[in-house]
Amino acid sequence: MNTSTASTGLRGLIATAIFSALASSFSAVCAADPSSSVSVTVKFADLNISNPSSALVLYQRIRAAAQGACSYYWFKADADEARCVHDAIANAVTEVNQPALSAVYNTKYKTSVPSTLVSQSR
Description:
Elements: H1 3-30, H2 52-70, H3 78-96, H4 99-109, H5 115-118
Helix pairs in contact: 2-3, 2-4
């Protein structure tokens, strides 16, 4: 057996295995269930979130994390992705439960944090 033929065959086998792995992982991403959850930790111990400018910084971190978390899913429409980001931000703002951060949210969305979220007890 010629060593170049064996080497070429092995390369082909490795390339096929890599392609198959990538294709199956892409299929898994495409079929991701949006009702499943992705969790992202946003650290803010370095911020005084009672200060409006620090609350804005935290809001920007939350928004970036929400966009990152929602990018794990394959959405059929941009509106679905926008809803994912909006809901993730609303949930995070509610969880933090600080007036200055809620004020930033209210300004950005021209509305208050949804009442169904605000009424949840911690």
